[in-house]
Write a structure and sequence with these properties.
By secondary structure, the chain is of the alpha/beta class. 29% of the residues lie in helices and 31% in strands.
Length: 127
């Protein structure tokens, strides 16, 4: 079970029957969740007092209690067309698989999307 998104780490208080101040990880904003993670979150949330901080509640407190892994999207999404030396997996493949088109660079140039895609495919891991 996993949730894929932008992981944030902050100190929060969680309360079931006691105060627990810890460093929590949660997904900020939109995310992708496996169907098993969604079911586990819905089941586990019945055992906790609801918080109006939904990101922290569902993808932080509840996800941890349900044993769900958080996958940080920052390893996989690049901002604009800045392609630096990527972080790589154990097999030497870059984690980065998407470039956000923040400033419309790709749309402004003829063939811009094709060039950005080729740049992404040409990423190599340092040896």
């Amino acid at each position: 079970m996993a949730i894929f998104g932008y992981v944030i780490k902050k100190n929060f208080v969680s309360s079931k029957n006691k105060v627990d101040l810890r460093k929590w990880e949660y997904i900020h904003g939109s995310s992708y969740m496996s169907s098993t993670a969604v079911k586990a979150i819905l089941e586990e949330s019945k055992n906790h007092f609801h918080s109006n901080f939904s990101d922290i509640f569902y993808t932080g407190f509840i996800a941890e209690a349900a044993g769900i892994t958080l996958i940080d999207a920052k390893k996989h999404f690049g901002i604009a067309n800045l392609l630096t030396i990527p972080e790589c997996d154990k097999s030497g493949r870059p984690f980065l698989f998407c470039i956000s088109n923040v400033n419309d660079e790709s749309e402004a140039k003829l063939g811009g999307f094709d060039k950005a895609f080729e740049d992404l495919k040409s990423l190599k891991c340092p040896k």
